[in-house]
Amino acid sequence: MDMFEEIYEVKKDLPKFSTLINKVKSHKFNSFQYITIFIGVVCFLAGIILGNVFPACDTAASFYTDVCVNTEFNILLMILVWFFSFIVCLFLYGIGEIIRLLNEFGPKK
Questions:
Q1: Which residues 6+ apart lie within 8 Å of 50 measured at CB?
Q2: Which pLDDT score, from 0 to 100, does residue 92 have?
Q3: Are 59 and 72 in contact (CB under 8 A)?
Q4: Which of 5-9, 34-38, 79-83, 93-97 is the least confident region?
Q5: SS3 (DSSP) at 60
Q6: Stretch 43-64: mean pLDDT, rounded?
Q7: Among 98, 102, 81, 78, which residue's Cα sits nearest to residue 39?
Q8: Contact 98, 106 (CB under 8 A)
Q9: What are the beta bridge partners of residue 55?
Q10: What is the average pLDDT score of the chain?
């Protein structure tokens, strides 16, 4: 048996989109996780806005001047905002997941 035959035997089909949506709908989020998801969306949009508000200088008028002839979208700033907001939101979502698990397995009243 060669490698490709083994791959065809072992591989599974990708789940359908409706199956993924049903799995996400069945997951119960707490308010901390909803807030984290909202903050993630806001930070995503903020990265795009900050990339436009603080553009990068494409070409300068001369070597020792602060005058930019052409400005371009600051993709580095956008990626930095996205990266740090992803890390912060991942941390906050993890705290929300810990809270959800503690509530789920905590003492029943």
A1: 74, 77, 78, 81
A2: 93
A3: no
A4: 5-9
A5: strand
A6: 82
A7: 81
A8: no
A9: none
A10: 84
Report the SS3 class of residue 2: coil
Nearest Cα residue to 31 out of 102, 86, 97: 97
The pLDDT of residue 13 is above 60: yes
Q: Where does residue 77 rank: exposed (0-12), middle (13-18), buried (19+ CB within 10 A)? A: middle
Its pTM stands at 0.67
What CA–CA distance (Å, rounded) separates 100 from 26? 14
The vertex-35 CA angle with 33 and 39, nearest 5°, equals 115
Averaged pLDDT, 29-53: 92
Report domain extents, the chain.
31-96
